[in-house]
Amino acid sequence: MAPGLLDLVHLTTWAVCAVIKLPQLVAVLRAGSAWGLSVTSLLLELAGLLVFLRYQIYYDYPLETYLEYPIIIAQDAILLYCIMHFSGKAKRALFYTVVYPLKSRRFGLCGLFGSSLHSSCVIISCVLLL
Predict the structure, then answer these.
(1) Which of 34, 93, 111, 124 could form a disulfide with 84 if both were Cys (CB 3.0 to 4.6 A apart)?
(2) Are 50 and 114 in contact (CB under 8 A)?
(3) Rg (CA), the chain
(4) Long-range contacts of the stretch 70-78 (C-beta < 8 A, 24+)
(5) For the whole model, what pTM was predicted?
């Protein structure tokens, strides 16, 4: 594939992924409620994205091939925060978000997204405790 065309495909993929969750996020913020959002499905999606992202990082794939996953993960994290905020559990969610990287002594990209499948599942389990 021509390099120019490949760059265009990467950019359009990243652009679509940057706005894919925005309509849902805007609707939640306008309503002031997260009623109707499934925490289970959001966590399942987040777990799948984290596992795939970790796979890509572990095998040193170029960032261009998986940059859309951190973008979607960030949007999922914002949606989870909205759910926790509107249900009154935001402080507890923030606690787990801060404590896990400190406890595991993993900072940076691998610390945030888990250094293995196990740590990714621990992050999801912490959120499930909420």
Answers:
(1) 93
(2) yes
(3) 16
(4) 70/113, 71/14, 71/17, 71/18, 72/17, 72/20, 72/21, 73/46, 73/49, 73/113, 75/20, 75/21, 75/22, 75/25, 76/21, 76/42, 76/45, 76/46, 76/49, 77/46, 78/21, 78/25
(5) 0.70
Q: Which two tokens stand for residue 98?
A: 């801060």
Burial string for 82-116 (b: 16+ CB within 10 Å, else e) reads: bbbbbeeeeeebeebbeebbeeeebeeebebbbee
For residue 109, the one-letter residue type is: L
| pLDDT per residue as tens digits for the range 33-57 | 888 888 888 888 888 888 888 889 8
Tokens (6 digits) for 69:
């996953």
To the nearest 10 degrees (0 to 180), the angle between helices 117-128 and 39-58 is 160
